[in-house]
Amino acid sequence: MVQIIATAESVDQAEKLLACGVDQLYIGNDDFGLRLPTSFSNEEIETITKMAHEQGKKVIVAVNAIMHNEHIEKIAPFLAFLKKTNVDAITLGDPGVIQVMKKEGVELPFIYDAHTLVTSARQINFWVKRGAIGAVLARELTWVELKQIREQTDVPLEILVYGATCIHQSKRPLVTNYFNFVGKNVDTSKERGLFIAEPKNKETHYSIYEDKHGTHIFATDDVNLMPYLDDLYEVGLNHWKLDGIFTKGEAFVEIAKLFVEAKEALMNGTWTDELKQSLNERLQELHPVERSLSEGFFTKDPSEVQ
To answer: What is the mean pLDDT of residues 252-270?
Structure first.
C-alpha cells in the first residue's frame, strides 16, 4: 500500500492536503524538529492530529533535531504532550530521546531518522531491533543501493520523491559569522532567500539559511522522482515523502494531487508512460521557477558518489 507523506505549512494547508488524498502529515515545531515549513504550536498540532484521525489519516511529528543537553532537558513535556494527543509516530535520530521516553514511561512509536547516516540495511535493522517501526532513508542513496536496502529490511522505508535536499548542517551560525566579519547586518532567515554558488560554477544555487538549529545548506536541485515511481512501487518502496519547505501554498497542494493521482494509477493498474509524462510536465509547471529539479542521486552509479 502506497503511503504519501507530506509536510504542511499551516492548519489550512494540512486540511487541503488531507482532502486531496495525502495519507500522512509530517509536522512539528522548531524546538525539536529540523527544516520544517513552519513551526506549529501545541494547539495547532492537536488540531491537525484530530482532523487527520477523523479522516482515518496519520500524523508524524518531527523530533529529529541534533539534540544538545538543553534539548534533552526540555523534551520530556513535549513527548508527554504528543502521547496525550495520540500522534501516530515521531521521527528521531538521537538515542537520548529514546532514553527520555523510557525514563518518563512515554511510549511513542518512532521512525529512525538520522539524516545522511541512514545508508545501510544493517543500520536500519539495528534500530528496528530497538523499537523503530520504520526509517527515513538518506537522500544521497542511488537506485542500486535503495533496492539492496529494501531487499534486506522488513519495515516501511520513507523516500523523498519531491522536495529539497539538505546537504549540510552546522550548529554554528556560519552566515551570521561571515557577515559580522565583513561588517554587514543581513537577515539570514529562510524567508530572505540567500544562496551560495561555487566559484567555478556560477550555475550552482545552494540555498542557505539559519534558525535556532544553526545553518542549513540545500542542494541546487530539488528532487523529483515522478518519472521513477513505477520502479519504486515495483520493489516496495512505497512511503513517498513530499517536502514543501520551498514550495509554498496552493502549488504544493496541487503537486500533492499529482502524486495521489500517480499512486491511484499504480495501484489500479492504469499507470502508463503517457500518464507519467503528463504528471511530470504538470509538476514542473507548478514547481517554483527559481528552483531547479532533477532526480538527485537516484540514477547515479554508486561508485561515482563521493
So the answer is: 98
Place of cell 554508486: 302
pLDDT tens digits for range 100-132: 999 999 999 999 999 888 999 999 999 999 999
Distance of CA 210 to the CA centre of its chain: 18
The burial class, CB within 10 Å (0-12 / 13-18 / 19+), for 66 is: middle
How are beta strands 195-198 and 201-211 bridged, if at all? antiparallel
- 123 CA to centre of own chain: 19
Supply the Cα-derived Rg of the chain in whole angstroms.
19
Statement: the pTM of the whole predicted model exceeds 0.85: yes
What the chain holds in terms of domains, given with CATH numbers, is: 3-164+222-253+295-304 (3.20.20.60)
By the 8 A CB rule, do 62 and 91 touch?
yes
The label of the residue with cell 514543501 reads 244
> Which of 5, 302, 297 has the alpha carbon at shortest distance from 135?
5
User: Roughly how many angstroms between the first and final C-alpha of the chain, as a whole number?
Assistant: 34
| Residue 117: predicted pLDDT | 87
Phi, psi of 144 (to 5 degrees): -60, -45
